[in-house]
Amino acid sequence: MQNAQSSWKDDAEYVTIVEDLIYHEELLQMEEITHHHFTNRLEHSIRVSYTSFKIAQKWNLDACATARAGLLHDFFLEDRDGVAALNIGSHADAHPKIACDNACRITEISELERDIILKHMFLVSRCGIPRYKESFVVTYVDKYIAIKEVTVPLKDIISNRIRSFITKLNPANSNA
Ligand SMILES: [Fe+2]
Ligand SMILES: [Fe+2]
Question: Which residue numbers delimit the HD domain (predicted)?
Fold first, then answer.
């Protein structure tokens, strides 16, 4: 995860595609919002965007739309309570709509990009079936990255706790 986070900056093609968004003051605010317990919403969005972009390039898909919509797929500044207070459905149903509205305010959004953002919660919301291959790439990458973001730090926390517990135990032959 750390590698993808740092390597996007060295990818001139990717930076050119997203630079008007990635340093946008509203997107930068997502850096302050905890996401998936151990990361922030901007880092998560960049991981999804860059990983999806590389897959789209490899498969000759629209890598530009994939990168931009991937970056905007979770573009909302509310926490869970804030989204719930809007009364526009469950968190899974509502946040893609908010992200799409926010995206339309700061840039032009194509039909493909709209589908990518609105359908990124495919299988865990009532958003319907994605219409494009690029939408499927982003929805699966989002899930893969989300699982990694939660499980990798959790694995480190658990193994550190086990290690610290074990080091406190007396060796079996300590009384010998
Ligand atoms: Fe999301
Ligand atoms: Fe996401």
Answer: 41-122
Closest CA to 67 of 146, 166, 137: 137
Mean pLDDT of 70-81: 96
Q: Among 11, 6, 43, 7, which residue's Cα sits nearest to residue 28?
A: 43
CATH number at residue 150: 1.10.3210
Q: How many domains does the chain have?
A: 1
Q: Round to whole Å and give the CA distance between 16 and 28.
A: 17
pTM for the full predicted model: 0.87
- CA of 161 relative to ligand 2 center, distance in Å: 29
Q: 142 lies in which domain range?
A: 2-168
> Residue 134 pLDDT > 80, yes or no?
yes
Total residue count of the chain as it appears in this document: 176
Tell me: pLDDT of 164 over 90.
no
Residues, CB within 5 angstroms of ligand 2 (ion): 74, 142
How far apart (Å, rounded) are the C-alpha atoms in residues 92 and 98?
11
Ligand nearest to the CA of residue 96, numbered in listed order: 1
Residue 127 has pLDDT above 60, yes or no: yes
